[in-house]
Queue: 2 jobs
Job 1
Amino acid sequence: MRQLASGVSVVTAGLDGDRNGMTASAVCSLSADPPSLIACLSRSTGTCSRLADSGTFCVNVLGRHHEDLATVFAGRTDLAGEARFTVGRWATGDLDVPVLVDALVAFECEVATIHDYATHCIVVGLVHEVHLNGNGTRPLVYHDRTFCGVT
């Protein structure tokens, strides 16, 4: 599976000002009507339980310049929990979720359903808000256990 290249996102959730997030490479569109997406998240990070409790989340699609941020939210540094949000510029979205200000695109979602499977949860989100900021920036990609860019 590590030969399957995929885009990189940081999925975030918040509840009463307490934020959580994780790097995810298993995110995809599901439906145009209603606009919805799927995110597969490791249950060990706490992000699944936070978005289940809050009922909302945000998928922040990363650009090539976000490799450091992806590394932090993947748990590859000493930063954890709220401290991870010291990397990058964050705002609070309309659904009270953390939104990366310079994400290529950020999708604010309402949780439609969550399915547990083995070590992960599969979240279906109904998209309520879209913040498009790409401006021609290339996406960050994950391939063979390495972050890389698209040329």
Job 2
Amino acid sequence: MQLACLTYNSKLAVYYLLLSSGRFAFYRPEPDVNDLLRVPIPKNSHELIEEIKNLDEIDDLIYQSFSLNESEKNLIEDLCAYTLPDYQGNASSPGRQKTHRTTANLLETQEEPELRDYCEYFMRVLTAGFGQDKGICATLFQEATDRLLPVRLIAIHLDKSIHERIKIESITSQSLFKRLNQLSDLLSRKDDSVAGGIFYQRVARIYDSYLWNGEQIPTIYIVKPDKIRYWTRSMALRDADEVAADIKRERTTMGVVPEAFHQ
């Protein structure tokens, strides 16, 4: 009974009900008895339930009880942090906010927290699928001034670690800055002229190369709107799966993906 109560108060229950119950996912969440009975309940737990003090510890207990791995936990966390609030909210919801160029807490100041996590998880998927020996690194492009672009650009370099795992590079080229603004206009198609109205936004994934020390490095360029929901860890897992599928099916630009990735 205790585990059932804890499970229903966990993020896992929210995740499961959102995906399985039409009544819960509707504008007025109201799962019925059958929906609630389908929520999985762990059979046992190695933790002392009496020592749980807050909701975070409830989530940790349920994750451990089901032996969820890190990727599975991230899917649940991102759905509760962004997907559900975005669905029920408006322009002020968390996933619709701009990515943070820097963020600070009492312990440290970190540059590009969302894009760093996105790239880290993206690269983990590729190395898991193609081998830990594959040289993969990422470049995050950041505006050199306070004038922020409506899109963000990253590059995933394949087959050679040309710098540390994740590097931030300033956009100093006015030509690139202008091109990204133009690309933003192409990716957005507004349905009305009212600011904040409903609109569709697309993303761009380009298989090309990056010139490094006279050598052409196979590179995947990803351009997405500057909104957190496009740069979550769960989105990185999905995007990396699509890239891995493209590589396996040789659907990328001829000669861009190295032969080692086809083995």
